[in-house]
């Protein structure tokens, strides 16, 4: 980046090098099927999911409540 960029985002003051992790309550992960039809997105929750639910033709969001994982099927265009 240019020196002008870095002069605009310069760090002023003391910043912590690490941030404490939030203490999240344990929750069951959720899996959502993501579909786009005619320009509109829909998200359908998959109950009692397993690895076999992840297919090459679809996109999924796995929400573990402290991380989000995206599954982009190999055949998705």
Automatic annotation (TrEMBL):
* Protein name (Swiss-Prot/TrEMBL): Gelsolin-like domain-containing protein
Q: Which organism is it from?
A: Arion vulgaris
What domain of life?
A: Eukaryota
Point out the gene that encodes the protein.
ORF41121
Start and end residues of each Gelsolin-like domain: 45-74
């Amino acid at each position: 980046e240019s020196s002008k960029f870095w002069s605009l985002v310069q760090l002023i003051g003391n910043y912590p090098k690490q941030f404490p992790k939030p203490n999240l309550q344990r929750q069951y992960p959720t899996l959502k099927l993501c579909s786009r039809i005619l320009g509109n997105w829909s998200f359908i929750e998959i109950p009692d999911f397993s690895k076999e639910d992840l297919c090459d033709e679809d996109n999924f969001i796995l929400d573990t409540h402290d991380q989000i994982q995206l599954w982009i099927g190999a055949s998705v265009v």
